[in-house]
Write a structure and sequence with these properties.
Blueprint: H1 2-12, E1 25-35, H2 42-50, E2 55-60, E3 69-72, E4 75-85, H3 92-104, E5 109-119, H4 134-148, H5 175-183
Antiparallel strand pairs: 1-4, 1-5, 2-4, 3-4
């Protein structure tokens, strides 16, 4: 019965029977010149590039992340990041060149430059779904201790900020306030 329940749980969580399986992927960064007169808009271009075999995702790289997004008169320069699946036995540089050739044949697009970086496939059991990774949690704790350490600073009024809780009671609601009102 225990085996049956474990099999059912693994079926529900979609755990694979082969733990050694991993899909090798890599990222390719491409600087595109997109013609303003020919071809489609950025969304249509992303869809066309996604249709290339072995391309998994297409994401524009914004300026804050080191990409280029600039209108230069007749064309628009845009950096995109492609996530590409690398089949076994295929050279990464060769596959990148084939993808770049396919992109260059698209109407209104010219590849100005490209480079690649290796990425690692994460298994679901290795992922932390809590919203922060352990290294981020450690950094958060360190920053919190550093910032909360400023509570002992003396101020011009003589006390430290945020050390005493302020009273939210209305002065007339206290017994002192009532007794002063009745005396008048």
């Amino acid at each position: 019965m225990k085996k049956l329940i474990e099999d059912w749980r693994s079926f529900l969580t979609e755990k694979k029977a082969d733990p050694t399986y991993s899909q090798e992927t890599f990222n390719a960064f491409i600087l595109l010149a997109i013609s303003n007169e020919r071809g489609g808009n950025r969304d249509e271009i992303k869809n066309d590039i996604r249709a290339i075999e072995e391309v998994l995702t297409v994401t524009p790289v914004e300026r804050v992340d080191g990409g280029v997004q600039k209108d230069v008169g007749d064309y628009f320069l845009s950096t995109i990041k492609l996530r590409i699946r690398l089949p076994r036995g295929v050279d990464r540089e060769w596959l990148t060149q084939e993808v770049v050739k396919d992109v260059n044949t698209m109407r209104g697009l010219t590849v100005r430059s490209y480079n690649t970086e290796r990425s690692r496939e994460l298994r679901e059991d290795e992922m932390n779904y809590s919203g922060t990774l352990p290294k981020d949690q450690a950094e958060h704790e360190r920053m919190k201790k550093r910032l909360l350490g400023f509570g002992g600073i003396s101020t011009s009024s003589g006390g430290s900020p945020f050390t005493e809780k302020p009273s939210y009671k209305h002065p007339k609601a206290t017994s002192e306030g009532r007794s002063e009102e009745t005396k008048e």
